[in-house]
Amino acid sequence: MQSTMMKTPLSLNHLLERAGHLFAGNEVVSRLPDKTLRRHTYGDFYRRTRSLASALGQLGMKKGDRVATLCWNHHVHLECYFGIPAAGGVMHTLNLRLAPEEIGWIAADAKDRFLVIDDVLLPLYRQFAHLHRFEKVIVFPFSGAPVDAGLADYEALLAAADPDSFDYAAHDEDDPVAMCYTSGTTGRPKGVVYSHRSTVLHTLVASLGDFWGLRGTDVVLPVTPMFHANSWGMPYGAVMMGVKLVFPGPHLHPDDLLDLIQLEPPTLSLGVPTIWMGLIQAFDASQVAGSPNHGRWKLPRGMRSLVGGAAVPEALIRAFDRHGIWILQGWGMTETSPVCTISYPRAELRDATADERYRRAAMAGVPVPLVELRVRGDDGADRPWDGQSVGEMQVRGPFITGSYHQVPVDAEKFTEDGWLRTGDVASVDALGFVKISDRTKDLIKSGGEWISSVDLENAIMAYPAVAEAAVIAVPDEKWSERPLACVVLRPGQSATPEQLRAHLLQHGFAKWQLPDRYEFIDAVPRTSTGKFWKMKLRERFVK
Ligand code: ADP
After folding, report:
1. Mean per-residue pLDDT, 251-266
2. Domain span at residue 98?
3. pTM over 0.85, yes/no
């Protein structure tokens, strides 16, 4: 006899059923290539998703088969998030910003059987089609143009399927639902596979009040691509709570995002720091009398903004707060589902000064429930949570990957006692706030001491004339490495190395920590997920 609770498997299908029954009238809005908005309801989403699952079954999909997506953020991608697992498959989001050869390599490594693709991305597909043969390429007519004869039409497949007679594939809670490759900025991309269980637990934890704080009345704008760690898991949370979604489609230019925000003002948005840097620059420029976009936009006061994936400069947090928008910083990796820490105002900070609140908001934050976190030194000993001692951050928990797809578990990524080695160097303070100093490979070692490039970047970006800054290490005969600052100035503004040096000294940096060189550049190169790409800067400036 069962003595405790029911052993009901955690399942994405439950979230789908819930949305179909409880939230059928709520809206999902997608921006199309021609910039018009298409509106669906969760009721449409429910029926269409079940139709997709049914159609995949008819195409002969078997349990565990990988179905790749090459799509922007929109309603059909959301249907794939739930429809592919409902039919027993594994949704594999391909990163459309990677080089075609890399996408082809990843699809082959994952042995993807089918592909769901936006018609506007077919030219990209043709560049890597020779590297991997999908059994079926299913084209979503995103642009509205008819799908070429000879290719499977997503809409025709759905129209021919019957959502009512569909039965969910039997599954276990540990069965895979989705797969995402690490971006490969630090080595060959590796596949991370998420399960029903890991996804449901991550969704529940991340949605808590102090983190995403999802409310039924929210309007969520996911700018984070759905191929970047599953848009940080937000689509699952949105469906769980039936919140209105506004998908930006392919239009991620700051002007386009600001236009969309006027049409559908969000209460919650998410994206990497560079997106918000671009947005605030465009907005600030529009405030100048006589500028081309003068008076065109308003910022949505009261919006919460989830920003992570890279360090969030304090200057950015302050800039948005001036407009009544609060940035919640999170830290995570593709390997960690991804939310592991979030910076939020803990009770102990109730009476903290504004400066202290900003300082904490610029940290990676506090570990979320179910995530264990430790900081290990090179000597194998745990570092105390004193806000000073740094080491490698290691994490463990039910939504942290235990291995990579078809890669033997190796000591570089996992410890002997089963923790994930994040490759991030961090300290933790007495309140549990994590502060990331650097990625291991970005650390600057000068005369036996570490210099945090993240700290330098944050301080340089607080200088009013600076739009963006990235600091890299350059080899040095005497000191082994020295910092070099790559600086992007705001249009029409100027700054000299002397001014920046004086500014950094004022910010409390010691003389030996200051960059020896400043390079003024037009833009910081971006990775496929929109982060600063320091490797490219090293290639350019380190000879
Ligand atoms: P990649 O950056 O390689 O494209 P991921 O999106 O998985 O792939 O990135 C995870 C990494 O991003 C982390 O290991 C960390 O270095 C960085 N990162 C994520 N969030 C933050 C943050 N809030 N502050 C600093 N670094 C962060």
Report:
1. 98
2. 12-194
3. yes
